[in-house]
Amino acid sequence: MDRFFTADFSGLKGSCIRWLVCLLLLLTADESFAAGHESSASPEKVLFLTRLNQPLKQEWEHQKFTGETKYLLVSEDGKPAIQAAGQQSSSGLYKKIKYPLKAYPWLEWEWKLKIAHKTADLRIKEKEDMALGLFVIFSRPWLPWKTKSIAYVWTSAIHQPGQLIMRPHHPYFVLQAGEEKKGRWIIERRNLYEDYKRAYGEYPAKDPKAIALFTDNDQTKEPAAGFYGSIKAIKKLP
User: pTM score, two decimals?
Assistant: First the structure.
C-alpha cells in the first residue's frame, strides 16, 4: 500500500498510522456503523461511544503494525478501563461509530498516564510515539488517501499542552505532555466540531466514522503505558 499512497501520506508516521487510517476507512465505507449508546439518565444530552462492561473483542478490533501493544480490560481505581502498555510496539484498538456530530459537538473522555516516553517528538518521524492517543476518523468512501482524522494525544514533555502539530490527514492536538499529571484520572472535554475547523479550515462535511485508541513506543523504545476510560459525545456542556 505504501507505494500507492507515499505522496499523499508523506507527513504521516511510518506505515502504522497510514494503515490504521486506510483500514478504518475501508471498514467504514459500507455505512454500517455501531451507533452511540444514549445515557439512561439524560438520553437527549449524552451518547456513550464506548461500553467498558463488554469484552474488548466484542467492542473493539485490535490492529497490529509493529509488535503488539498490550490492551486489557481492567478495573482501575474502582472503575472499568482499558489498560494500554507499549512493548516496543505500534498497535491500536478501533471501533466503528455513528452519531450526528453537529448535534453532539463535544467529546468527553477520561485517561490516566502511568508512564510517558522521555524523548518522543511528534514532529519527527523517527520519534513519533504517544503514550495515550484518541483518534477520530472522518472517512470518504473509496478515497482513502483523502480521509481526515483528528488525534488527541498525551505524549512527552518535549511538547506543550495546547500545541497543535499539523499533519496532512491527522493533526495532533497535544492535550497533555510529560508526567506531571501521571497517576490520576484526567477528564478531557473537546469541541470536536470546532477542532476540526481549526485543523482543516472548514467544518466537517461528514460525521465521524470510527474512533481508535493508540499507544505506541516502536520508535523510541521507551516505556509508555496508561489507561483509557469511557468516551462520550455530548450535546452541550453544563
Answer: 0.84
